[in-house]
Amino acid sequence: MDQPHPHGSRKPDRACSFLIPRLLEHFEHLDQQPALRFKSEGEYHDLSYRGLKSILFAVATGLMRLDLRPGDRSVILSNSCPDWVYADLGSLLAGAVTSAIYPSMPSTEIAFILKDLEARFLFVEDEEQLEKVIAIREDLPFLERVFVFRGKESYGEPWIMPLGNLLYVGSAPSRSEVQTIRDLAARTTEDQTLAVVYTGGAADTPKGVILTHGNYAATFAMVERHLGSFQGLDTTLSFLPLAHAFERLAGYYLVLFAGHTICYAEDPGNPIRSFRNANPHFAVAVPRFFEQIYHELILRSLRGPIWRKPLFEWSIRVGRKVRRSGLAPERLPMPLSLQYRLAEALTLRRIRSMFGNRLRFMISGSGPLNPAVIEFFHAAGVLILEGWGSTEATAPCTLNTPDHHRLGTVGRPLPEVEVRVGADKELEVRGPNMFTKYWNNPPATEAAFTADGFYKTGDLGEIDDQGWVRITERKRSIITMADGCKIAPAPIENALHAQAHIARAYIHGTNRDFLTALLELDEKMLQLSATREKVASCAPTVLARHPVIESLIRAEVARANAELPDHMQIRAYRIMERPFSVQAGELTPTQKLRHSVIERRYKPLFDSMYA
């Protein structure tokens, strides 16, 4: 029997196809095919693979002329944009190890990551991010150069340089410099580090996950086999932060590896506006994106004539009935066919058109998505496929596919990925996509793996006899009540999130006799309800305390409780004065709640509900 590779990263029995060598092939053969599409000065522009090659070779040559050596760490502090790609791939072509920092991170975490990596080179988006770096410059003895994507033409400091200047430094690479770049790519090995990706989890201290060229190559191959093909997925819309392992793989590396096109959202904070212009074949998103659109559509149904809401709900019911039937529209029985045509004309087609007219599917990852939200979009013909994984797994471990998907699951494991249920129902994973260690953190590495090399994911779940995986909760999120009863908060949160006015809920109850909640309200819905109920408009925090609005919220909490068993019902709640935020440390950059921060900060508020 084969012996497991230490810490679960068993080498696949095949020759890997690596990212950088594959890109060099594309530069020769795809030529004028668009690689990137982005909006500049009000117009969309395409950058061909030939144009991308020219920029990347200039970045790589410029870095090498500034003494970047293979294995040096090059870090990016920026929102997603084409410049991010130039910095990342240009650094990789020069033999660097790349990493990324979320722009929303505070200076303390930025300093920690840069010091942890001993980074010599840093790319920043603009002067706002540059100011953060200047403020901590004395704590960064290894940092030699900072390149600014958008800012001044000159900074009067030799260590700060506009990106355009780096391109100038690297312009017209010599034949020997080009050969050096090609030689570096040709010498790529499976065990060679490609990136150090810092976890955006709920832990207080980020951990750097070392991902190799072999990890990414194995993942590319496994995802392609799992989906069947990359054919028909020519364009994606990118709007998640590229510091996110999920987006970095599925919305970036995988797309360019396949020789396809990435279109960047004009406004990543409001990407739905970019879908029609980009007209993508697929896109990846996090649950919050789908939940916000769902609430926005519910909000629209409440505006206007009194008949709009019941007509909207009827259309969704018809769409749901059609999807559950499993029949193609042309094979529906006559009564349902007539209803479906009407529902299509009135509602469903309009929802689909928000995403363009070529969308085959969207992938949701980085957290659980309420099944009711998935079913809503499926009713409208927008296929959402849930997947599951972690940064440590180069992103995916399991994935639903267009041909094989099951509501309430995160799909089946990718080929060559082993998933099992371990102690306390924690899911454990092993495969060629798995990392082998954290950066500069042996204790965390040791704690992450079982004795036989499976990674302990921290997610609780179950696997049925057909291999479908269900996630029930994060292990650290389980609430242990005073009587020892253990409660997973996800079903409670889903029941509350399904209510029109509740945007987010935090469930509390550790060592308590009953459960309580902090509720974050949807401000748009709040204002609409105020108008409908003839309540004078005022600040949301004041509005939430108005007796009429309080009554609406009480009714919604009661409806959510009615769906839950008695021991999982919310007995008391408080309305948040402001939304949870990344800046306040209550959310991770990937929009996950930081339990330790919230429990500590809002302890007096929690105590008041038990007084």
UniProtKB/TrEMBL annotation:
The record lists the membrane-crossing segments as none
Pfam families per the record? Answer: AMP-binding, AMP-binding_C_3
UniProt cross-references to InterPro entries, sorted A to Z: AMP-dep_synth/lig_dom, ANL_N_sf
Record domain AMP-dependent synthetase/ligase: where: 32-439
Q: GO cellular component annotations, sorted alphabetically? A: membrane
Q: Which UniProt keywords apply?
A: Fatty acid metabolism, Ligase, Lipid metabolism
Provide any one GO MF term from the record. Answer: long-chain fatty acid-CoA ligase activity
Q: What is the protein named?
A: Long-chain fatty acid--CoA ligase
Annotated source species: Sulfidibacter corallicola
What does the record give as the organism's lineage?
Answer: Bacteria, Pseudomonadati, Acidobacteriota, Holophagae, Acanthopleuribacterales
